[in-house]
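TL;DR need structure tokens for one chain.
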Amino acid sequence: MKYKNLLFLISFLFFFINCEYFSTQPKLAIARVGDKYLFFNDIQDRIPNKLSEKDSVVYVRNAIVNWAKNHILNEKALINLSQDDQKNLMDLVDLYKNDLFSHSYQEKMVKTTMDTIILDVDIENYYDLNKSNFKLNQDLVKARFLKINNDNYNIKDVRARFRRFNKDDVVFLDSISLQFSSFSFNDSIWINKDLFFSKLPFLKTYIKNNIVKKSLFYQLEDSLELYLIKINKSIFRNDVAPMDYIKPTLKQILLNKKKLDFVRDFENDLINDAIQNKELEFYESS
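>> reply
TL;DR here they are.
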């Protein structure tokens, strides 16, 4: 119903603009440039569903104007551009078309045929050979923390378990985590130092730096809460990035290299097959 009303409004508009022409135009045509017609069905599927009827009319009117403008510009270009200019442009169009089709075909073959498995041993070997190229631009830590109310009845046990942090301690702390104001126990992954300490904004800079450099256990207590912090490991700007931190990047690098090798071999196979099947010949210049 929305599109029928929209079509009626557009047709009504064009009827008043040129009723004599519309009496002979092809059925459902809403615009013409020379011998080219635009039909409502050509743009119907492009109209966003959530537009109001008023906004839909505006959208269609703009689509009509853009269609007309493009066709008029194209016709003027064919008239005013020299044959050499037109030939150069058509050569570019053909080149772009060929590149587009070739690239799409290559991407399809990569997705359906290429082995995308990257082994850990390959990642490790690549890292060992190229680790000097991967310098950090930030300080990283492996760390954990928690905040707990001073009057919590578990506070002594929590402090001891947080510091020891064996498997049983982790299970226990997780089981009572709703008692903590805030916490992070994922101390096996590297995290940006500033991001980690952003959860502890009350700590002064010199304390943060001291904790990180010495991989300390640190606790601080105010009138309301106890803060527990443990830095397991730290690494600093301009140091070589640890492999477990950049492993996703290394994997993507190797995957990209694998893709380049696959495409190169694929293209070589196409050439060789074409030669073998007598579809391609190279002629020596005389």
